[in-house]
Amino acid sequence: MNAPDRVVAGVLAARLDGGGRLLFADPQLAALNARAGGAIGQPLAVPALATIARLAVRLGIVVSRAVTVADDAADIEMWVRAAPEAIGVRMAVSGWREVAAWRPEGTPREPALAIAPGEWRWETDAGLRLTLISPSAGTRHGFDPFALLGQPLTALFAFDEDGDGLLPILAALAGRTRLEEQPARLRVSRAPLVLSAAVRADGKGVFAGLVGVARSVAGERPIPSEALPARFTEDLDRALRTPLARIVANADSIHAAAEGPIGSDYAGYAADIAGAGRHLLGLVDDLVDLDAIERPGFTLAAESIDLADVARRAAGLLAVRAGNARVAIVRPEGDASVPALGDFRRTLQILVNLIGNAMRYTPPGGQVVVEAFADGDAAGVRVTDHGKGIAVADQARIFDKFERLDPAEAGGNGLGLYIARRLARAMDGDLSVESAPGSGARFTLTLLSRESLPR
Q1: 416-426 and 344-361 helices cross at what angle (nearest 10)?
Q2: Is 451 exposed, middle or buried (0-12, 13-18, 19+ CB in 10 A)?
Q3: CB neighbours (10 Å) of residue 448?
Q4: Closest by Cα among 148, 96, 100, 142 to 124
Q5: pLDDT tens-digit profile of 305-321?
C-alpha cells in the first residue's frame, strides 16, 4: 500500500543571485536542493526550479507555474513563483505536496544514491539520454549542463576500462544491476572521474534509465594509448552484437507497427530505442577496429579498386539517411573511373564515415559533394560539406583518438576520423582536411594510383 501524501503548509522562500547561485532557502527547499547535489553558494541544483528562475531573469517578469519534482522516495508537487530583482531572483514555493509514486505491489523501490561532498548527480532516460546534470558540475568543470540535456550519455562522459580491461557500465546495463566504480573522463575537459549509478525502473518494473553520481579523481591518469586486450574486444563483440542487433530489429518492428497499430508516443519510444541500439553497435564496431589498427604489424592488402565506384557505393548506402535529413549527395558520374590500390572494404568504411560526417554538419536543403580524382601517382576522393567549418587550430585535433570539438553536439564517440586516417595510412595513403570557420570543410582521401605500379 502506498504511504499517505505529505503536505507542507505555508510558503517556502529562497533567494538566488544574478548567476543562479542559491543564497538562502528555507529548510525543506535547502534539503531538496542538497539531495539534488547542490549547496548554498552553488547554482540551484533542482532543474525544474532553476529553469523557472532563469526564465524569469531572461524575460524580466514574474513567472509562476505548477511543477512536479522527482525526489528520492516521492514526487513533490508545488507551485513556484519566481520574481526577478535587481541583484537576483526571489522565489516562493507553496502547495508543497509529497506524493508517493505508484508502483505495483512487490516492486522494489529505486535505490537511493547518497551524494557526498564534491560529488554531483546525473540521470538518463531509458534511451541513455541525459535528463539531469547538477548545475554544480558546470560551475566546477566549466560547461553548460543544460545544453547537454537530451544528448546521449557519451556526450558527457568518455568511459575508460577498469583494471581488468572491462567497462563496468556494459555489465551493469546488460544485467540491470547497480553500476560501481566506472572510470571515466569528462568530454569537455578530459578531467578524470569515477561514476556510480542505480537502475531506475518504471511502474511496471521496466528499465527507465540510470540515476548516477560522479566523483572527481585527484590527479590526472594518463590516457591509455596501447591497444585494448584481445580478450576484451572479442568478448565485447560476442556478448553485445547479437542482443543489440535483436533489440534494434524488434524496436524497428514496433516503430513500423508491424504487429498492428500502436500509439504515436510508443512508436517514438521504439524509434529512440532503435537509435540507441545502433549507437551502441557503432561503438562496438569502433572498439573492434581500434583494437585491430593499434596492434603491431597491422597492414592491409593492396588490391585493384575503382575509387569512383567505391564513392558511389558509399553515397548509395547513405541515400535514405540523406533523404530524411533533406541533404543531397552529389556523387561521381556513373561512367567515371579512378583506378587505385587499396582494400575495398576499408576504403568503403572510410568514405561512409566521411560522407556521414559531412551530412551531419550540412544544414537541411544543402548538399555534400563527393568527387573522385586522379593526380599522377595518386588517386583520391574529396568529400565537401557546407557546414560551419573547422578552425585551423583544431584541424589536427579532429584526427586524435576520442577527440570531439564540441561534446554537446549529437554525434559519435571521437573514434571515426582517428580510425579512418589509420586505415588510410595502412594502405600507403592518407586522409587530410581543408577548412575555415563558416566555409564548410573538405576531407581528402588519397591512395596510390594503379598507374603507379611498375610496368
Answers
A1: 150
A2: middle
A3: 17
A4: 148
A5: 999 999 999 898 888 88
| CA-closest candidate to residue 157, choices 176, 139, 174, 133 | 133
Sign of the CA dihedral running 234, 163, 179, 138: negative
pLDDT digits (tens, 9 = 90+) for 172-191: 887 788 888 899 998 877 88
Burial class of residue 372 (count of CB atoms within 10 Å of its CB; 0-12, 13-18, 19+):
buried
Give the type of residue at 39. A
119-216 is a CATH 3.40.50.12280 domain: no
Burial track 304-315 (b if 16+ CB lie within 10 A, e otherwise): ebbbbbbbbbbb
Q: In this structure, which CATH number among 3.30.2310.20, 3.30.565.10, 3.90.190.20, 1.20.120.80 belongs to the domain 303-452?
A: 3.30.565.10
Contacts with 4 (C-beta within 8 Å, 6 or more apart), sequence order: none
Cβ atoms within 10 Å, residue 429: 22
Q: Does domain 6-99 have CATH number 3.30.450.20?
A: yes
Instruction: Quickly count: other Cβ atoms within 10 Å of residue 391's Cβ.
Output: 12
Residue matched to cell numbers 594510383: 449
pLDDT for the residue 152: 87
Please report the DSSP string for 128-170 in residue order.
-BEEEE-HHHHHHHTS-GGGGTTSBGGGTEEE---TTS--HHH
Cα 20 to Cα 136: distance, rounded to the nearest angstrom: 11
What digits encode the pLDDT tens for the residues 398-452?
Answer: 888 766 665 555 555 567 888 888 888 888 899 999 988 888 899 999 999 876 5
Q: In the 8-state DSSP scheme, what is residue 365?
A: T
pLDDT at residue number 225: 40
Q: Strand 6-8 vs strand 88-99: parallel, antiparallel, or unpaired? A: antiparallel
How far, in Å, CA of 38 to CA of 358, rounded? 40
Cell (9 digits) for 410: 549529437
- Continuous segment of H or E residues that includes residue 440: none
Using CA atoms, how far residue 385 sits from 223, 280, 318, 347, in Å, is 32, 26, 15, 19
Single pTM value for the model = 0.44
| Inter-residue contact 76 to 69 (CB < 8 Å) | yes
Give the span between the Cα atoms of 15 and 391, in whole angstroms. 42
